[in-house]
Amino acid sequence: MVTYAVELENVSKHYGSYEVLKDITLRIRKGEFFSILGPSGSGKTTIIKIIAGLVSPDRGCVKFNGEDCTNKPPYKRNIGMVFQDLALFPHLNVYENVAYGLRIRKVDEGEIREKVFKYLELVNLDPKIYAKRRINQLSGGQQQRVAIARALITEPSVLLLDEPLGALDFKVRQHMAMELKRIQKTVETTFIYVTHDQSEALTLSDRIAVINSGKIEQIGTPQEIYEKPATKFVASFIGEMNFISARVENGEVFSEIGRVRVKKLNGSREFLISIRPEKVRINDSAENSFEAVVEEVNYLGSHLLLKLRVGNAYLKALTPSSVRIKEAEKVVAGWNSEDAILLEA
Amino acid sequence: MKDNFSVFLASLGAFLVAFLIIPIAVTVSTQLFDLNALIKALNDEVVLNSLFNSIFTSTVATLISLVFGVPLGYVLARKNFKGKNFIQAVVDIPVTIPHSVVGIMLLFAYSEAILDNYLGIIAAMLFVSASFTVNSARDGFMSVNEKIEYVARTLGASKVRVFFTISLPLALHSIFTGAIMSWARAISEVGAILIVAYYPKTAQVLVMDYFNNYGLSASRPIAVILILISLVIFVTLRRVAVVKGGGSI
Question: Which parts of chain A register pLDDT below 70?
């Protein structure tokens, strides 16, 4: 039987009359980099606070390694936590920030020193240079590293990260994201990562839970989430997507842009055909082809993002920028049925 | 470029600064031309006892306000509960009540227990000064990012440990500032003390006494000593607060 690092079973939470979480069930494997992805206000931070024990669920239970810990206080859960604003202790220097968890556990000074140095090195901060520095003498990226070292030094079974890269500028954020992945692989600790940034979640995660309005929409690997979204919300939240309304009549499928072929009907009479812009073929053979007019051409460097008018509908298409296409040009746009995803209307 | 508007604002502010500093400067400088009276007052046992009484009672009142006011400040900063606004109003009310009325209220409430003794002086001082400590402690705790406390708890610290190792050290600067203001307010209190505890005499009551019985000149030496002692202690404590807090207050 698989023992999970963290399990949430039918967890619900209200703030006043507002239901923040609705019957959430999650199972996170040991050593997994698991992301909780959703827009602002979707309830993802509440989930992480419930896992940490900082907020109690109204219903349901939280298990660590199979043990029910719903009513355990945070300091007995063996977790680490990193917030977006890092929440470093401003009155302590780098060394004392990192050492805090060990001092609480009354670890002897020699071991504290050894571990502080080890974890500062793990996060690529030279202890000889940074240990005695005050927090306000560090850059955003360096503060991030201190927060991670501080959270990991107690060797928690789970590290909770609540939008930890949100306060960093773009370049540093990209670099720190890769650093997080490296650190997670090194320590093999379960990372639970809350973010609203789909590209971060896709890049870093082993699995992702997409949450919307307090409900889990889909759990899967980044590939599954991107290539086989389970709902319209997931399809639209993760990357770009074209949606075409369609209905079944006499065994044939009619969409708002004409008759189309689909791979497999899902039983619904009315549904949405979803196609990623990169799956739309321009002037190339495809099972479903339509004449289209190029309304907009947006240059993205390696690719062009086209806005195409097909009848009264619009499609977005991504094509290599080496292809020369101009606005108002007539093209043939299409897709193969295997590249389309059918979703509930 | 000359900033005329700032000059205008500074001029208005300068008026108030001058208004505040002139009485202190005139009183102290006038007394310096009559050093004999000052030296005589410093050798007067009644004066020395009254000064001791003032400093001792105001310090005790401040310590009491710290012991009970800091926890109250933490609760007001961190917890939402029914009646919180009422409690906050209760803390602020003493500032709005005339001090002679404070004395009468204290006598009605605690009667003989506080009449003409140290307890009475301390009670009067505590009543008029505690709000400074409570409000500063509350503001200090409110300025501590709650997530810092969360992190400490996830690192294995109990709520008590988080309070003493994180919240309290980070709010200490505000608490210390509030305590200084409480002490300053306590040592300047006269009205309530006159009604509750005329004896043992504090320096501020003695100044009043000398003024009523012997006139302005007789009360001035004690007033000057009280001004100088208060200023020295006040400035020293503020300097300590600045150094500890790493900023200005």
Answer: 1, 266-268
Which residue segment(s) compose the domain that A299 sits in? 240-344
Same-domain check for residues A164 and A265: no
pTM of the predicted structure, to 2 decimals: 0.78
For residue B235, what pLDDT is reported?
A: 87
CATH at A78: 3.40.50.300
Residues A230 and A247 in one domain: no
> How far B66 CA sits from the closest chain A CA (Å)?
21
- Alpha carbon of B182: minimum distance to chain A alpha carbons (Å): 25
Distance between CA atoms of residues B188 and A71, nearest Å: 51
In three-state form (DSSP H/G/I as H, E/B as E, the rest C), the secondary structure along B145-193 is CHHHHHHHHHCCCCHHHHHHHHHHHHHHHHHHHHHHHHHHHHHCCCHHH
Mean pLDDT in residue range B98-103: 91
User: Using CB atoms, which residue from B156, B161, B166 is nearest to A89?
Assistant: B166
Tell me which residue in A83, A85, A104 faces B155 most closely, judged by beta carbons. A104
Interatomic CA distance for residues A12 and A230, integer angstroms:
22
CB pairs under 8 A between A and B: 64
pLDDT digits (tens, 9 = 90+) for B227-239: 998 889 888 887 8
Q: Chain-wide mean pLDDT for chain B?
A: 90
Instruction: Verify that A174 and A296 share a domain, yes or no.
Output: no
Interface confidence (ipTM) of the complex: 0.74
Q: Name the A residues in 30-59 with CB < 8 Å from any B CB.
A: 52-54
Domain membership flag for residue A1: no
* Nearest beta carbon to residue B148 from set A54, A87, A156: A87
Cα-Cα-Cα-Cα torsion B195, B199, B200, B202, nearest 10 degrees, comes to: 50
